[in-house]
Amino acid sequence: MPDDFSDFASWPTLAYANSRLDRANDRRGDAGFLAAAKTDPSTRVYVISGELVVLARRGEALDPLFRFAEAEAFGPAIATVFLGLADKAARMGLGLTPETAAQLKTRPDLLVTDLRSVAIGGLVAPEHLPPLAATKALVTWHARHRYCAKCGTATQSTEAGWRRDCAQCGVQHFPRTDPCVIMLVIDGERCLLAHQSRFAAGMWSCLAGFVEPGETLEEAVRRETFEEAGVKVGRVRYFASQPWPFPMSLMVGCHAEATATELHIDRAEIEDARWVSREEAGLMLARQHPGGLYTPPPTAVAHHLIRTYVERGAGIITAETGENER
Ligand SMILES: [Zn+2]
User: Fold this and answer.
1) Residues with beta carbon < 5 A to ion ligand 1?
2) What is the pLDDT of residues 238-252, one digit of tens each?
3) Are residues 256 and 131 in the same domain?
4) What are the phi and psi torsion angles at 259 (to 5°)?
5) In the listed set 144, 166, 189, which residue is the last one of a domain according to the structure?
6) Is 77 in the same domain as 199?
7) Separation of CA 147 and ligand 1 centre (Å)
8) 262: domain range?
9) For residue 164, how far is its CA from the centre of ligand 1 (angstroms)?
10) Distance 163 CA to ligand 1 centre (A)
11) Which of 10, 16, 67, 323 could form a disulfide with 243 if both were Cys (CB 3.0 to 4.6 A apart)?
């Protein structure tokens, strides 16, 4: 399935995906290059403070890029990462403390806000969302993994922020990405949507859950669907994935075929779930539902899972087969 949504040319952009940066992994261990990049006038920096994104107000526009010295002057850095190259110019990410965010919020030349609002509100060009997502995930990882998970000694950032090393026991720690399945379960002309208490009123989306150790993506889809809604799933078909830096997940979007459809909802996990007709799902996507119900916005892979089903029907499950078929 399309990782660049190439056959959906008219579709709005999926957020945080399809980075245009050259990650230039080979430069991560190059101390001379990294030192020079900090003073190079072409270098630009994305800034995350606590959980929030720092944007510059430049005239009417919002700019997520700062010169290195400008970003460094905001406050003490808890992480500095080399993200890659854009037209041969270095792109870095800088992590500041949550306390710094509170100070920066008072400055009239800056906007300090959460990454979801940046994405959904289209506050910056879509090309900036993948490096902002990478910065947020890496900064969070550094903030939460300051000590060796094996021996408890304080670790040091290395490889331009892509590894932390323990000098005591020699273990190398790499940034985490936590896989999470998100699935639209389909029963012919209806699909299963759920409402979570943390969602805005009226928003219904796909079921989702973290993949457990020793589990395939398909097994995670089947287990989570059964746990949360009591629905049994057979075939699972991969659709597309999306970095989800809240704090450091990868959402793996799948369509799934229901084989037993009676609902047994786990109210501790989700507030509600129900079967929605393909027609009704179309009204929710278009924000024309008579009851005011709606789906997540096009920035989220859930929107595209629902939209593909509404446009193509249940045949999307059977069009191709995967290796881990039941
Ligand atoms: Zn150690």
Assistant:
1) 148, 150-151, 153, 166, 168-169, 171
2) 999 999 999 999 999
3) no
4) -115, -20
5) 144
6) no
7) 8
8) 178-318
9) 10
10) 13
11) 16
